[in-house]
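Handout, section B. The chain below has 237 residues.
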Amino acid sequence: SVANGFTIKALDYRCTVKPLFAATNSVGKTNVDRREALSSLIIAGGALVGGTLTYSESRNDNTRTLGSVKEALNLIESECDRRFLHGVVASDYSFMYSELPANTKLSRLPVIFSSKTFANLVGTSPDFQPLEKDMQGRPVKPSNARIAFTSPTRLSKAASVWPLGENVHFAWSEDGEALEKSAGKMVVDGIDCGRMALEDALERKNGEILVRADRYLMLPVSLEADLLAGLKSTFII
């Protein structure tokens, strides 16, 4: 059926069970040190949490600005990862967020960017090396993913993150601890089935999720009311 110009889609979620991986010990800093470290990654060079992304309207840097929330909804309908959409709807429309670059001029429009546009700084941080080592052989790990947060209040210029395409993977800490302290406790969506669902991770307060995709759509929180209304009229489980 159709509502407000959008086809209503019934979302299906399937999980392929694969063997669990070996665990290692975790290492991490205090919360204060951690916030300072992550903040430095966000601020340096106009950076997203998990990597730098310099916006430019005059050169080809693999970014594209959409003209409206309706365009963003059409893109979500056609290209957003279905497991993520299921998790969003099943969690009563809980989103995940990342930081818009400090120097962006596009804070009032949806933006698509490629993972190749920016380097991942968190993956090279010493604090994340135990987790990186623990997740070797898995499709998502700190060196190829971004950190997204389940609360926009932790970010100064927050935008919801929507992974696009087919090469999309998620992981999160089973006990909700900070990611760099979670070696041996990570749940990888689609692999560690039965332990915890993506919607459960999205529902956490101040939670953290590793997300890997080839392209991402970001919508500033100023557009969230229109985005939420469009999603609720478009997608059902």
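Note. The two ends are 14 Å apart (CA to CA). Compare this with the example in section A.
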